[in-house]
Amino acid sequence: MITNPIGVLALSKREILRFLSVASQTIFPPLMASILFMYIFGVAIAGRIDMSATGLSYIKFLVPGLMTMHLIASAYENTTSSLFIGRWHNHIQEVLLSPLSYLEMVLGLLVGGVARAVIVCMGVYAVGLLFAPLTIQHPFILFYFILTISIIFSCAGMMGALWAEDFGMLSLWNIYIIMPLVLLGGVFHPLTMLPEAIQHWSHLNPMFYLVNGMRYSITGVSDANVLICAITSLILAVVLFLATVYLFGIGYKLRT
Amino acid sequence: MRDSERAISIQNLTKYYGKLRALNDISFEVKRGDFFAFLGPNGAGKTTTINVVTGLSNFQHGQVRAFGYSTTTEYTRTRRLIGLCAQEFNFDPFLTIHQLLVYQAGYFGVLPQEAAHRADELLKRFQLIERRNVKHRALSSGMKKRLLLCRALIHDPEILILDEPTAGCDLELKFLIWDYLTQLNNEGKTIFLTTHYMEEAERLCKTIGIINHGRIVRIGNKQEILQDKSLEAVFLEVTGLE
């Protein structure tokens, strides 16, 4: 329950101000990368890719994948860097000494991650419009997936920031676990392009459902049942949120 | 339930860092409106006690209360009552010093307009108003000390905890801080001070507690503790540093 809404709002505002004040590092790089991906894969190479099984042009297939990839990366990076820098400089004490409950602390930090992820995700969509007309087929479902996915990875970012002991450890989860799973989850390729044996393994990858949930929202096409995608993202969001609040509650690497 | 007489109440507090027992079954109280000096050699347990009271450290045994509220189960209430002026300069590097105070007040539920007003008042009081739009890195260490005090006071706490507030300050700043702390105490704020300067404790405080190796070795009002001795002599005697 929220008993200190002004406090949550203040923390949320500080988080948003933090990433906006360094927009050249937080907002524009993923947009730049997206332009390059869309140009190289969507324009230069797309003609050689057989997309007949999906009924979409490659660029229309690619844009939702890139939106998901940058949604995940931005949410994760925002909370990771904010919380870890707070621990590193010890100014996290400003928050820990306040009367915010642990749930409110997590919410305040979460808002920053979600806000940055949404801005970047919609920026990638806007960039996509430069390459292909792309009407959002299911806006409410898109809103649902953007929200749940950004919550999942904002919480994962906070957990990563609590776990990390130095800047080197900070990006390990992202490099070795999250991004490989996201890329294998179908950002750049439909499931049918993979050998049949590997297609089965893809169903064990939770990112596969997140990428396909987003793709369904925008194009109406998905390699997975959208209900399973929605349930997967909801369960992950709830579990990771509760786990993060629990870690704040016990003071994991926050209190001595 | 609120206990309006006892600002801080610590009962049988034990705190371990791994196998090291940093606080060993300590109990004491700080009355409302008191100016309490908490003294001890380096590593005696002063900062650990402060961290436990403010909620920055967990502990294994005992009870810690602020105005009757438990600092563990009712932490959202106790943290409103306490302002901490820590030893280290741990400021958010992304914010100007004015923003820093406004956001800090916000975490305590103070509305932005009121927070901005309080920030200006405190920055004026501590002669930092002309630097309000710079980040803390642009301040001298004396200015940062003053900023720590501003931050501790921004939500108008009933208990002010100061962890060596004048360490490294020049005489002028020391007197400025002493005057202000005396004024705050006269206005009714409870002040809990740790310091290595015996003169400071002797001059400002009404009650003195001395901790050594995680145990309280002497506690009482200043007259009882001192009798005809200097505080330095008492300190050396009870801590065995003579």
Please sum up the structure shown:
With 256 residues, chain A is mostly helical. Chain A has helices at 5-20, 23-26, 28-45, 58-89, 93-96, 102-129, 139-163, 167-170, 172-187, 196-202, 206-219, 226-250.
Can you walk me through this structure?
The complex is a heterodimer of chains A (256) and B (242). Chain A contains twelve helices and no strands. Chain A has helices at 5-20, 23-26, 28-45, 58-89, 93-96, 102-129, 139-163, 167-170, 172-187, 196-202, 206-219, 226-250. With 242 residues, chain B is of the alpha/beta class. Chain B has a single domain (6-239), classed as Rossmann fold, CATH 3.40.50. In chain B, the strands form two sheets. Chain B has a six-stranded mixed sheet, with helices on both faces. In chain B, a hairpin with a 2-residue loop joins strand 4 and strand 5. The model of chain B has no long low-confidence stretch (mean pLDDT 93). The A-B interface holds A 3-4, 6-7, 9-11, 13-14, 17-18, 21, 85-86, 89-91, 93-101, 250-251, 255-256 and B 17, 51, 54-58, 75-77, 79-80, 82, 84, 86, 88, 90-95, 99-100, 103-112, 151.
| Residue windows where pLDDT falls under 50 for at least 5 positions of chain B | none
Q: Tell me the greatest interface.
A: A-B, 30 and 35 residues
Q: End-to-end distance of chain B, in Å?
A: 44 Å
Give the fraction of residues assigned to helices of chain A.
over 70%
Which CATH architecture of chain B would you pick? 3-Layer(aba) Sandwich
Measured between the Cα atoms of the first and last residue of chain A, the distance is: 26 Å
Our estimate of the beta-strand percent of chain B is 25-35%
Strand content of chain A: under 5%
C-alpha Rg of chain B (nearest Å): 18 Å
CATH topology type of chain B? Rossmann fold
Subunit arrangement of the protein: heterodimer
Tell me the Rg of chain A in angstroms: 19 Å
Structurally, how many domains make up the residues of chain A? 1
SS field, number of helical segments of chain B: 9
Q: Catalogue the unreliable spans of chain A.
A: none
